[in-house]
Amino acid sequence: MTEQNETFYQPENFILTGIPGLEAAHFWISIPMVIMYALTILGNTVLLYIIMSNEKFHKPMYLFLSMMAIIDLVATATTTPKTLSIFWFSYKEIDFNVCLAQLFFIHAFSMMESTVLLAMAFDRYIAICQPLRYNSVLNNSTIAKIGVLAILRGTFLMAPAPFLIRRLSYCRTNIISNTYCEHMAVVKIACTDTTINQIYGISVALLVIAVDVMCIIVSYYAIVRAVFRLSSKEARYKALGTCGPHICVLMISDIPALFSFFAHRFGHIPLHIHIIFANLYILIPPMCNPMIYGARTKEIRKSIVIIFRS
Questions:
Q1: Which residues pair with residue 15 across a beta bridge?
Q2: Which domains, and CATH codes, for the chain?
Q3: 261 vs 76, 119, 254, 266, CA distance in Å?
Q4: pLDDT of residue 2
């Protein structure tokens, strides 16, 4: 091997191990995974169909829901089929460039979803705190701009990641202990200095998490203040009830994301536990989002019943 190859080497493929220590249980783990993936496709497709086919749902909150459904469908499609191929057929190889594309889409679409969740918090703030301005503020033009902003934000914040990874050398191993190519999992196995990659990763993650969480907290603080100024207890419950689905979605989206983020950098959690949570982070929010809104939104619930009865 030449001196240049000794100092810089990129493999043609990476090897994804699946869940280390639980290889014998891969098939059984795949069963609930297939069920969750099928429910994700069914739930989000039905939700999209209901919103797009009925003009009464062409309102800001429902349009944000449709954005989230599209993001969830694409995000799960980038990881779950490959994970199942590992569990079922032990097809563990993934092309280097495909791996970079996968990690880009995983994290970019996570940032897009975070932006949409922030927009939904803004929607609730305007609806409850400034209802007379709702139609003028959240018009079709504003919603389209928010959609474009979500795409641009996720794309540009994540765009440097593949290029920063390309500068790394993988002279020790090409084995990734995971079921998919996640940014820090790929960076950790490099044999060259990864300081820039780690600084970039933590900076982007904290920027997105800190900005979005802070804005959402401020929005809900204003919402709670406005709600408790209402004289009617029934009006308070109704106002808070419209926020319930959004809060549930925030919790199931952000808690697993924060767990994965801190486990990579600061935790001493068993590897198989971390990887299981990483997969749940990919599958559970997209599966639960349409269920939560379908169960809590009367109009959507009625439309679902009509579809399955027809």
A1: 93, 175
A2: 14-309 (1.20.1070.10)
A3: 19, 23, 10, 9
A4: 42
Residue 245: pLDDT over 90 = no
pLDDT of amino acid 81: 94
What's this model's pTM, rounded to 2 decimal places? 0.87
Tell me the Ramachandran region of residue 139: left when phi exceeds 0, alpha when psi lies from -120 to 50, beta otherwise.
Answer: beta
Residue 50: exposed, middle, or buried by beta-carbon count in 10 A (0-12, 13-18, 19+)?
A: buried
Tokens 């933590």 -> residue: 202
Residue among 193, 189, 194 nearest 176 (CA): 189
Sequence letter at residue 2: T
- In this structure, are residues 153 and 108 in contact, taking their beta carbons and an 8 Å threshold? no
Q: Residue with structure tokens 């765009």? A: 159
